[in-house]
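job 3f2a | input accepted
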Amino acid sequence: MSLNAKVRATRGAFELDAVVKVEARTTLAILGPNGSGKTTLLHALASLLPGESVATDGASSIGVVFQDLRLFPTMSALENAAFPLRARSVRKDEARERAAALLTRLGLAPDRFGARPGGLSGGEEQRVALARALIVDPDLLLLDEPTSSLDISARGQVRSLLSGVLREREGVCILVTHDPVEAMTLGDTIMVLEGGRVTQTGTPAQIRETPRSAYAADLAGVNLFVGTLAPLEDGAGTLVTSAGELTAAWPTGMPHAPLEDAVAVLRPADITLHTSAPEGGSARNIVPGRVRSISVDGERARIGIDARPALVAEITLGSVERLGLLVGLEVWASAKAVEVRIEHG
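job 3f2a | predicted structure (345 res):
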């Protein structure tokens, strides 16, 4: 199933006007500042508010994980997860059996099935809410800020869980978030929404390289890497990804042991470019590559670099001229280990 929808909605003086196109087996991450209309758009797609939503390739079934979860407080975790099946007249024992299997797959311990939402941790509640949304295998899965209320540890666990779930789905998923790390970790495509209007749509790499607004440049313009963080003896670690390796400072409070699914962020402004291999200095990451693209915005330029891993650097126009940067030029990118920030593992 693909989704092709034109959405219009009004809330007081605020107007939302957006076209949403998503292919099957694809996750669209909607990224935008507070008040941009992200949740309004999600609710319109779910037919939860007055407005116009016209889908030419619409979904016959929809699953929603709300920002505030909205679990039924008097029902157990198992009953919450089974509720959509019971609402479709599925027999009680079958519904509970299917819900138990799904909750187990999502990592909720069986001894927690009988607990009510008030007795569950934030991460456990998220698993129950996700199970309730997935239990009918919906064509369209809508996720509203799925990790915003969680602490850092639980946030990383839920992101890893969502990543696995979304890879397995046949349908469409729309994820609303204000967190660029979450958008770029989980989204195949990113839509930037500002003031009720779509200002840019593209892959994470396209958004990073050529942001079309100040908001996109500030929040989406990051180098993001996912891989295994292996400890080094000096309090640092090697992040091994499918696209290359980087050295990072070991995250405070995390055990000094390999971390699977570690997510690291490197700001483009923290990368220094050289036209010859740098010698000396404190940068532990020195990556050779070639200039792929040069995008100018005001007095600064974003430089896309074909390397392992691929990088985007942000430098002044004066530096572009001083270095003589041109597309195809061989360069070396350097960054300190402390600038490669591990967000979670």
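job 3f2a | The chain has a mean pLDDT of 89.
job 3f2a | closed
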